[in-house]
Specification:
Elements: H1 8-18, E1 24-27, E2 31-35, E3 45-49, H2 61-82, E4 86-90, E5 100-106, H3 122-125, H4 131-145
Antiparallel strand pairs: 1-2, 2-3, 3-5, 4-5
Helix pairs in contact: 2-4
Length: about 150
């Protein structure tokens, strides 16, 4: 699909390819994995499709399945490594049209356990981990992914 306007997802993918995305976790078959800005949900990751597509249905079924394998692999690693109570998966596209998945660990004591994370104000969700803690978390996820 040819895109006519700037795409934040494509810009992020380009930063990853240049090696300038500090939240980069790893490259999988169909996607790049990064830590989300919202680490109030420790381990929350985003997976960006490596090339531009706006809808899951834009991809042939075989690519959709490979992308889901990436998502599922990240979820398995987060479950095993971080032991959340639950994982939430979302592929929305409302704010960023570039095909991407959210894999969000949910923990005991979550203030909005019955709702999507987006009901909490951004200021409460956007928790930046100190550099050494972020690096350790990225390393742990990377190791779990076998990267």
């Amino acid at each position: 699909m040819v895109r006519s306007m700037a795409c934040f997802g494509c810009e992020r993918v380009e930063r990853i390819r240049r090696g300038s995305d500090r939240e980069f976790v790893g490259e999988l078959g169909e996607s790049y994995v990064v830590l989300a800005d919202e680490q109030a949900y420790r381990g929350y990751c985003l997976l960006f499709l490596k090339d531009h597509a706006e809808h899951l249905t834009d991809l042939p079924l075989e690519r959709q399945l490979r992308l889901w394998e990436d998502v599922s692999h990240v979820g398995s690693v987060l479950m095993r490594e971080l032991e959340p109570v639950r994982l939430n998966y979302a592929c929305l596209g409302n704010m960023m049209t570039h095909l991407h998945w959210h894999v969000t660990p949910r923990y005991a004591g979550d203030p909005e356990a019955q709702h999507p994370i987006w009901v909490r104000p951004l200021a409460e969700r956007r928790v930046e981990l100190p550099g050494d803690e972020r690096q350790a978390l990225v390393a742990r996820i990377r190791h779990g992914l076998g990267l």
